Amino acid sequence: MRIAIGSDHAGFDLKQELMVHLEAAGHTVVDMGTTSRESCDYPDYARLVAEAVAAGRCDRGILICGTGIGMSIAANKVPGVRAALCAEPYSARMAREHNDANVLCLGARVTGPGLALEIADAFLAGEFAGGRHARRVDKIRDLEK
Ligand code: RB5
Q1: What is the total count of domains within the chain?
Q2: Residue 65: CB within 6 Å of ligand 1?
Q3: Which domain holds residue 100?
Q4: pLDDT in tens, 15-52
């Protein structure tokens, strides 16, 4: 899978760790920054990742900030993006199966790195179940119009 990843300063260390993990698992990871622990603004990176996913340049996106909240709020402003903030693997799997989420948000100050890797794996392994869930996701798409 081709995965766009981005973080602010608070998520930088976790982003670096996740990139190594995802590449080892065979994914192509597109790093959209940030590039250091220097303070920066999370919406800038949310925009880059969300637009890459919405445009189809990447299959999935992962965004990390301190809580994951700012990233999820910002990413969900981009039409076509369904960003899910997850703090455990069950929600990450359901975000794919029921919500067809295409961007995962993580809070590096909330979720430890070991758990974050498990959450990312669950998200990337999850398949959209379709059926009644497709009808509901269509209604989300209607909200974008
Ligand atoms: C940065 O201090 C922090 O506000 C940011 O990483 C994020 O948690 C925002 O939602």
Answers
A1: 1
A2: yes
A3: 2-144
A4: 999 999 999 999 999 999 999 999 999 999 999 999 99
Q: What are the tens digits of pLDDT across the range 77-111?
A: 999 999 999 999 999 999 999 999 999 999 999 99
Q: Which atom of ligand 1 is nearest to the CA of 71?
A: 10
43: Cβ below 6 Å to ligand 1?
no
- Whether this model's pTM surpasses 0.90: yes
Q: Ligand 1: does its nearest atom lie under 6 Å from the Cβ of 6?
A: no
Give the bridge partners for 60, in sequence order: 3
- Residue 112, classified by CB atoms within 10 Å of its CB into exposed (0-12), middle (13-18) or buried (19+), is exposed
Question: Are 44 and 19 contacting, i.e. CB atoms less than 8 angstroms apart?
Answer: no
Determine whether 98 is an active site residue.
yes
CATH code where residue 114 lies: 3.40.1400.10
Reading the block at residue 42, the tokens are 């999370």
Quote the DSSP letter at residue 122: H
86 is catalytic: no
Distance 71 CA to ligand 1 centre (A): 8
| Pocket of ligand 1 contains residue 70 by CB under 6 Å | yes
